[in-house]
Amino acid sequence: MNSMKKYIIGVVIVLVSILVTVHSVGRNVLTFSHELEKRGLEEAVVFSSQALDEAPQWSPDSNVVYVHDAGVWKRIDLNKLRLAAGTWKDGALIGIASKSNVEEVSREGLPFQIADNFDPRTAVTSGGMVIQLLSSEHMFGLALTISRPGEPAEKLWESDLENCYNLVLSPNEKYVAYQCELTGLIVRKL
Asked: What is the pTM of this model?
């Protein structure tokens, strides 16, 4: 009887340990959206590089973005990023990925290809929101604008020199990814 009690107590201790571990791990998992919200941000540099050379691609679940850096495709799991606050165009806040798990992948490992009607400076959601990179007042600058149906366009930032392009909507239309030549890959929450 005494050894049976010890066995049962041992099993209960192991089960409680497993439940506590699973619960604490689940609570520490933050989505990219929560990471942005926690820091009061709308967008983040998720991959710093001056060698991006093709439009980014998204996983079907919108949790992973793929970037072509110096001839190599890389996979960035947005939910594993940890952000630090930085400043961006016109002094606006932007997140900077301080921890990321970037993995190299083959072209065959990509979930899908860019559509034939791809426009590197415009993305449109199914609800009619238009995200655009437009020429700005500055000679070589651009402005990122968002137009929601029935509302005037809102200018989010303006650059005076940096070229940005390859706006690609996530499949769930909650984010847009784009490249800036001097900065890298940026993902903005819509």
From this structure: 0.81
